[in-house]
Each structure stands twice: as C-alpha cells, then as structure tokens.
C-alpha cells in the first residue's frame, strides 16, 4: 500500500498512483502538473469558496465554447500561455522572422491572387500597400512561398465575425512568390480591436483591471516546402496598444513601418514594408530553457 493523503505529502500521494506502464511523457507532464498545482494551492492558501469560484469559472468557459468560439484558447492567450508554448515550439535562429499567436480568425482556403491585388472588399478604411521580400537566412529570395494574410476591417471586425455584414473573404488572400521572392498587395491599414470579451475571459480581464485590446496588425502565415512555417503578424508602428497587447503577441522585430506616400495613380496611401526571413527545417537554435524554469520554482 502506498501512503495516505496529507497536506504535507499531497503531491507524492497523487503521483505514486501512476502505474509502471504509464507513458513516460504523460507521467512527466501529469506529475509536474500535480506538483505545480498543489504548490500553487499551498502558496495562496486557496479557500473552498475560491476553489469553487475557479470551478464555476472553468465551467462557464467550457459552456460558451462552440464550433465558432474557443474560450479556453482565449483564456490561454490572455494568460500568456499560448505565447509561451509558441515560443518554445518555434525557437528560430537570429535573423529569421519570429512567430506570434495564431488567433481564432484564420480561414483555410482564402482566394489566391496575383501580386498587387486589393484584398479589401468592403471599401472601408485607409488604403495601404503591403510589400516586402521572402528570403532564406542566407539572403536568397524564396520562390514558391505561399503568403496567407488576414486582417480586420476598418470597424475592427474580421469577416467571419460579421458574415451578414462583410463580404466573404474581406481582407484575406493568398499570394505565391515568383523567382524574386517579392510580395505586394493592397489592403487597409489595420485598426486595433478588442478580443471577444462578452464571456468569462472578458469578466476575468475586467476583474484584473485589464483591457481587452490588441494593437493593429496584419496576420500572416508563410509556408514553403523544406522551410519552417511562419505564423505571425506585422504590427502597425505607433499603435497605442503595442506595449500592452492583451494576448502578449508583440515582438519588437514584428513592428512594421507605415508611411504615407503617393501611389502610381498619385493618390496618397499608406505603405508598409515587412521583409520575411524563413529558416529551413532543422535550422534551429535549440536553446532549451527547461533547466532555467526548474531553478525558478
Ligand atoms: C487575433 O489576433 O485575431 C486574436 C488573437 C488571440 C485572441 C483573439 C484574437
Ligand atoms: Fe487579429
């Protein structure tokens, strides 16, 4: 027989129940989860009422989830967990474009357009020319890279949030690079917007005195066989929320320039340049921060 449960040996009491046959990775993950969650409860002296409030919060979070809404991911995003898992999973060499949070508004199969196409279909917002290059770490242009982009409209909503208001595929498109590795398309200068905040995550943010806003950004996903897929954004420089994105997605290297310049027709438009650098599969930094995390306890 293994030991009884007590406050002092709570972790051992739970973890020693795992069998010899338990998958080693599952044993590591569940063992550490129990270790940390018990330490947390002891550290804050969690009361029964607080434990029940937590259970009710998670229950409400689950109940509001649907095919269209994933409140648990939103919770993970706002607690910085999504960005942490993303950082660990996408350690890239210096010079490669960094990842950031994927978000819930990507739609597979956006229309594929010729370079230069305007992806803004609702005629709202400030026109903006997006351009740049897609290169490898050695500086060679990458031909055949697919750039999938999506952004909100001038009112701060993605087309999928307003299917009865916005044209389908508004502010979305896919572009394939030619031999020069260059891309260009027209859209609108994105605007900052609040994440869905009418559910438990919004209540949590309010209780913590946090706002639900994300700084304006253009989402991008870049894929090419033999290269690490990039899931990222370019952020609008000067946005007031850059320093406190509610999902912690901002990285300095992802802030893009936005300048007012005349276009070919002589109209003044925004112009944003964002160069993308892809790392090949296997071109990793392999900096493993696990031991540092263990020391932090
Ligand atoms: C977004 O940028 O689309 C997003 C990211 C995380 C949570 C909600 C929205
Ligand atoms: Fe977004």
Comma- or semicolon-separated keywords:
297 residues; alpha/beta; Protocatechuate 3,4-Dioxygenase, subunit A; 9-stranded mixed sheet; two-stranded antiparallel ribbon; 7 helices; 11 strands; binds benzoic acid; binds fe (iii) ion
Walk me through what this model shows.
With about 300 residues, the chain is α/β, with parallel strands linked by helices. It contains seven helices and eleven strands. The two termini are about 30 Å apart. The chain has a domain at about 85-280: Aromatic compound dioxygenase (Protocatechuate 3,4-Dioxygenase, subunit A). The model has no long low-confidence stretch (mean pLDDT about 95). β7 and β8 (about 230-235) form a beta hairpin. It has helices spanning about 10-15, 25-45, 50-65, 70-80, 80-90, 200-205, 290-295, and strands spanning about 125-135, 145-150, 170-175, 180-190, 195, 215, 215-225, 230-235, 255-260, 270-275, 275-280. Strands 1, 2, 3, 4, 7, 8, 9, 10 and 11 form a nine-stranded mixed sheet that branches. The structure holds benzoic acid and fe (iii) ion (FE). Fe (iii) ion binds near residues 105, 214 and 217.
Terminal CA distance reads 30 Å
Q: Which descriptor suits the 3D outline?
A: globular
Provide the CATH architecture of the domain at 83-278.
Sandwich
Strand content: 15-25%
Please, how many helices?
Answer: 7
Q: Can you say what the CATH homologous superfamily of the domain at 83-278 is?
A: Aromatic compound dioxygenase
Number of strands: 11
Radius of gyration: 23 Å
């Amino acid at each position: 027989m293994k030991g009884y449960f007590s406050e002092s040996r709570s972790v051992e009491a739970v973890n020693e129940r795992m069998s010899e046959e338990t998958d080693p990775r599952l044993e590591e993950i569940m063992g550490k989860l129990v270790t940390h969650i018990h330490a947390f409860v002891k550290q804050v002296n969690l009361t029964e009422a607080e434990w029940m409030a937590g259970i009710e919060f998670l229950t409400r979070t689950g109940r509001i989830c649907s095919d269209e809404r994933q409140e648990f991911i939103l919770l993970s995003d706002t607690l910085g967990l999504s960005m942490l898992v993303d950082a660990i999973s996408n350690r890239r060499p210096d010079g490669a474009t960094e990842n950031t949070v994927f978000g819930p508004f990507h739609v597979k199969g956006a229309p594929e357009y010729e370079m230069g196409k305007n992806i803004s279909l609702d005629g709202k917002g400030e026109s903006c020319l997006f351009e740049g290059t897609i290169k490898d770490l050695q500086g060679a242009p990458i031909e055949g890279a697919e750039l999938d982009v999506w952004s909100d409209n001038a009112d701060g909503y993605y087309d999928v949030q307003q299917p009865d208001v916005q044209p389908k595929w508004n502010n979305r498109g896919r572009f394939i690079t030619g031999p020069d590795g260059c891309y260009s398309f027209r859209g609108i200068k994105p605007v900052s917007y609040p994440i869905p905040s009418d559910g438990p995550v919004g209540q949590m943010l309010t209780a913590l005195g946090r706002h639900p806003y994300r700084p304006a950004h253009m989402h991008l996903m870049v894929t090419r066989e033999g290269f690490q897929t990039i899931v990222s954004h370019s952020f609008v420089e000067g946005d007031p929320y850059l320093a406190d994105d509610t999902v912690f997605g901002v990285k300095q290297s992802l802030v893009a320039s936005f300048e007012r310049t005349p276009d070919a027709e002589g109209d003044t438009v925004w112009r944003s340049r964002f160069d993308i650098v892809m790392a090949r599969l296997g071109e990793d930094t392999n900096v493993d921060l696990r031991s540092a995390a263990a020391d932090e306890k």
